[in-house]
Amino acid sequence: MLNxxxxxxxxxxxxxxxxxxxxxxxxxxxxxNQRVWTESLLQSTGLINYWSAKSSIxxxxxxxxxxxxxxxxxxxxxxxxxxxxxxxxxxxxxxxxSSYGEALRIxxxxxxxxxxxxxxxxxxxxxxxxxRELYQATLVFQEHMTKAYEDEKRAMMRKDTRGNNLMTSLVxxxxxxxxxxxxxxxxxxxxxxxxxxxxxxxxxxxxxxxATANSLAIGVCLLATRPxxxxxxxxxxxxxxxxxxxxxxxxxxxxxxxxxxLAVVFEIVRLYTAVAIAKSTGSSPxxxxxxxxxxxxxxxxxxxxxxxxxxxxxxxxxxxxLEFEPSRWITTTNDSEASPSHPVxxxxxxxxxxxxxxxxxxxxxxxxxxxxxxxxxxxxLVGLFRDFKVKPVPLKGEDDETARxxxxxxxxxxxxxxxxxxxxHPERAVLEWRRRQHGTGPDSC
Length: 445
What we know:
mainly alpha; 10 strands
């Protein structure tokens, strides 16, 4: 399915997968995370300006897709664009961002015929118009990737260090692998071919765009039901960024000091895991320990873990395992330099082996972009909740508490799979954003 633009880390096995994994893993580095942080704050600042200027909004899902798309564009290709809301006029901004974004949107929305028929067959004149539009979208996306790739190759020839985007890192890491292998073995061994670079760039877009956008939409709505958690993270954000504009903050200085925001991200993903990633035993049988017994699972067996059961089992998550409680991810330690009345908070890291949390998969084939997604999500929370609060707009006869209960029920009952987990009718979640009036404590929205 994911070989549309070329082999990649998600579709290869054995030594080929190891080569892809080695190069792509090194590309998701702290330089890229800095770019993700910057773009996330830029987009979320534009988003909150748009949302807070309206009396109510029903475009949460559409707008978080735009945020995710623009973060991807900035972090992967080094192309930064201002945020524009769902009902804002974009006729004056017909740049390559719109063609790239529209192309990616069409590809993701119509991926089934693309997989079944293949790219070239979509151009047949007797096929429906929507299929030919899909084919044109693949050409536009390919053109965008090719231009970015060629720009980076020319920059390397000039010994230009350029930016800190993922395409830059991927091309340079691939070339460094060629040089290193050649010098150590005396023979030429490949990094990634041009087609493989395109394949990996596409799979990063495919895996990261909708998954993050859907999780952001669900997360905003969940937080709208919990004003106490909004206050909790706003307190942290304002303490960490005191005296610094959000857009001017440093990833290195801020992100590690925002464990509450990271806890919100993990709790959202725990309850609403966007992608149920399948695993395979590969070319040989694999032992699986079940209690005191070991079962030999046959070769080439596809296994899809029950993410929902694992992520909500009381054995691992306690009596409130079905509740949205980000504080479960926080632990406190009395620091010798801290006041005894104000213990230091840390994010509670779970063991990597036999972990009850697999929100970004696990094992050797865990998601290489998980830190990318976490930085993006935290950055968006900073931009949205530092100075603003959100609540559901009450229906006639409702008070705020009843409206929050209704929205909570909607999230639980109206979330389902459409390729990825998402709110099926997000337009029914009508929200109101208002600026905080008195610090970060409780106040009226």
